[in-house]
Amino acid sequence: MSVLSPAPLLSPDSLEEALRSIGAERYHHLHPFHRALHDGRLSRGQVQAWALNRYYYQSRIPAKDASLLARLPTAELRREWRSRLVDHDGDAPGTGGVARWLVLTDGLGLDRDYVTSLEGLLPATRFSVDAYVTFVRERTVLEAVASSLTELFSPLIIGERVSGMLRHYDFVTQETLAYFTPRLTQAPKDSDFALAYVREHARTPEQQQGALDALRFKCSLLWTMLDALDYSYVSPGRIPPGAFRPS
Ligand SMILES: O=C(O)c1cc(C(=O)O)c2c(n1)C(=O)C(=O)c1cc(C(=O)O)[nH]c1-2
């Protein structure tokens, strides 16, 4: 939006269209590292680096959802949002999305204690994920909910990823990628709710721009994480000190 002309008030349908076009232009399905991952152009060590770094994202998602849950004003909203905590943390040890992500890192041959120690993370992964948790904690509830709307676009990329990785990598199995199967139903349920919330609660031009900016912010941080993987693991000799080194 130009700084010279004030933003117009959009209808809920136009707002949704603007949100969807941000995803079409900026979501991480377009990133060269994802294209390489899904097309089978990465080595096992590069796939390990992706899974190890992405573990930090997965592990902080419940923390960001818990901070948002605490600020939601009604039982109805909190009931809806708390299902995300169960999806990620499970309701018993060894269940939930974070535990399933560790099945993926196990399947790729990474040591679990090393993954969960976070010692091998890229600096940019840490900063990006922490920026997401801080954003959700500090911005309005509307902006926080809007920042989760990248999930509108994740089923598409998950479908491409699972079929591409199974086809191209002999070190990847259906069991290793089991993390993604429940996401295909969880993500649409979560993003339908978040989208309905944003359509209803973004009632002024400023609130609508805040929601659009929150989604742009989220696309940027997902993009940054892949930039860092691309820079560090695709060109030789660029792994930062202390970060994971494929053997
Ligand atoms: O595989 C992916 O590309 C992808 C993307 C995203 C996303 O768009 O943020 C999420 C996930 N996966 C995911 O598994 C997940 O649990 C998740 C939670 C959230 C969120 O912002 O609350 N995004 C995502």
UniProtKB/TrEMBL annotation:
The answer, when asked if Oxidoreductase is one of the entry's keywords, is yes
Q: Which InterPro entries does this one have? A: Haem_Oase-like_multi-hlx (IPR016084), PqqC (IPR011845), PqqC-like (IPR039068), Thiaminase-2/PQQC (IPR004305)
The GO biological-process annotations, alphabetized, read as: pyrroloquinoline quinone biosynthetic process
* Name of a matching Pfam family: TENA_THI-4
Q: Which reaction does it catalyse?
A: 6-(2-amino-2-carboxyethyl)-7,8-dioxo-1,2,3,4,7,8-hexahydroquinoline-2,4-dicarboxylate + 3 O2 = pyrroloquinoline quinone + 2 H2O2 + 2 H2O + H(+)
Keywords attached to this Swiss-Prot or TrEMBL record, sorted alphabetically, are:
Oxidoreductase, PQQ biosynthesis
Annotated Thiaminase-2/PQQC domain ranges read: 18-227
Report the protein's function.
Ring cyclization and eight-electron oxidation of 3a-(2-amino-2-carboxyethyl)-4,5-dioxo-4,5,6,7,8,9-hexahydroquinoline-7,9-dicarboxylic-acid to PQQ.
The protein's matches in PANTHER family, at most eight in alphabetical order, are given as:
4-AMINOBENZOATE SYNTHASE, PQQC-LIKE PROTEIN
By what name is this protein known?
Pyrroloquinoline-quinone synthase
Q: Which organism is it from?
A: Lichenicoccus roseus
